[in-house]
Amino acid sequence: MTAVHPAPAANPVRRSKLVLRTRAKTSSILGGLLVGLLAWELAARVMAATNEQADRVLPSLATVARRGFLGLGHYYSGGLGVAAGGDGEIVSAAAALVYNGLVTTGRVAIGLVLAVAAGTVLGLLVAAVRPVRLGVSGAAELMRMLPALAMAPLFTLWFGATSTASVVFIVFGAAFIVLIAVLNAVANLAPQITEYPRTLGVSTRSLYVRVILPAILPELRGPLMFAGLVAWTSVLASEMYGLESGLGWMLNDTLRFSQIDRMFVVAVVFSALALTTMKVVGALVNRATRWNS
User: Fold this and answer.
1) What percentage of the chain's residues is helix, strand, coil (to nearest 5)?
2) Are 58 and 47 in contact (CB under 8 A)?
């Protein structure tokens, strides 16, 4: 009797795993920054060859580092334990950026936390309580259509040229984004997520706090990141009207006197702080939703 040997197994087909990358890595961000600086320097050299006033319109990176950075010293008037030395002092220029950066970051942090808290609580109340839904939904739709940045001077008139006006304006700009995002996330929940706990006798309050809020967090990641971006845009607009502290105030002052080299330095610091905030918000949301990964 002839033994029957099993046919050899076919070689498994190796398929490359499809990976969708939607978040920029640190290396890609640094690469983009390098490309941007090289493009700026190239454009500055081209303009310098054709325009005698190029150094004032589009200064080279060397001019930005020398004249732009050192020209920021007069924006520091003390407060960090370092004596104010005026323009031309490296310590004063660095202190001006640190002090005003901390002021702006503090306003953004307070305003963003209040906006997320107000938008989330109000969104859950609108979803759960019919009278609140009838009273708030229409007003929210109307308010979010307003040109927020154009209303910055109005908040200065209401609250004065103070940090309070800046923080309230940030809350006004970002809270409606969170509110609408919460409503959409609740509406997109699968029915069994809320129906099954109800069959177990879970109260409405516990349902929203312990079931619905954790369930909608993954969908809120994008809107929260966008709310952070709006917070930085709002603080920039608010600091341009009457305030005499913050990076927005420095940007407005340098722009008023067409000091492009100084404006470039402040804009880079502003962008770095905004990017850092986005990274922090993203990390916090990822930590809160790690059960979903």
Assistant:
1) 75, 0, 25
2) yes
Q: Which DSSP symbol is given to 81?
A: S
276 is written with which tokens?
């850092």
Chain center to CA of 3 = 72
Q: Name the region of 242 (left: φ>0; alpha: ψ -120 to 50; beta: rest).
A: left
| DSSP 8-state assignment for residue 166 | H
User: What CA–CA distance (Å, rounded) separates 169 from 178?
Assistant: 15
**Residue whose C-alpha is closest to residue 169's, from 120, 234, 220:** 234
Report pTM: 0.82
Cβ neighbours of 286 (radius 10 Å):
14
Overall average pLDDT of the 120-143 stretch: 82
In a 10 Å sphere around its CB, with 0-12 CB exposed, 13-18 middle and 19+ buried, how is residue 174 labelled? buried
Residue 293's Cβ-count burial label (10 Å; 0-12, 13-18, 19+) is exposed
Terminal C-alpha separation, the chain: 57
Which tens digits make up the pLDDT trace of 221-277? Answer: 889 989 999 999 999 999 988 888 999 999 999 988 888 999 999 999 999 999 898
What is the spatial distance between Cα 165 and Cα 145, in angstroms, rounded to a whole number? 21
The pLDDT assigned to 19 comes to: 59
- CA-nearest of 34, 61, 231 to 149 is 231
Position 160, amino acid:
G
Q: Extract the tokens encoding 278.
A: 């986005």
Q: What does the angle CA 116 – CA 285 – CA 125 come to, to the nearest 5 degrees?
A: 35
Candidates 86, 52, 55; CA nearest to 72 is: 86
Q: What is the Cα 281 distance to its own chain's centre?
A: 8
Q: What is the DSSP letter of 292?
A: G
